[in-house]
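It is worth pausing here to work through a concrete case rather than discussing structure prediction in the abstract. The textbook approach is simple: state the sequence, then state the predicted structure, then interpret. We follow exactly that order.
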Amino acid sequence: MPTEDQMYDLAELFKVFGDSTRIRILYVLFESDVCVADIAEALNMTQSAISHQLRILKQAKLVSARREGKSVIYSLADDHVRTIIAQGQEHICE
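Step two, the predicted structure:
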């Protein structure tokens, strides 16, 4: 049985996946590493709204960021993110 802290952290992780905007952002990042402006354009949302959601995804260690000149480029933190989404998708399709 996981510790109380581990169960809390797992519950917090799943809360992050509880927002469809964040899921949509992850799907954009499945395709390529992009800046906030490109994500905002792809999802037809404001850069401010995207930045807010990216902050949450970054805090949850699902997304990482790197600076390229004046731009910040976002990417998936690791392949676990793809696996979690794929498993969820598979579960709802059954």
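Step three, interpretation. The domain at 4-93 is CATH 1.10.10.10 (Arc Repressor Mutant, subunit A). The chain has one domain: 4-93.
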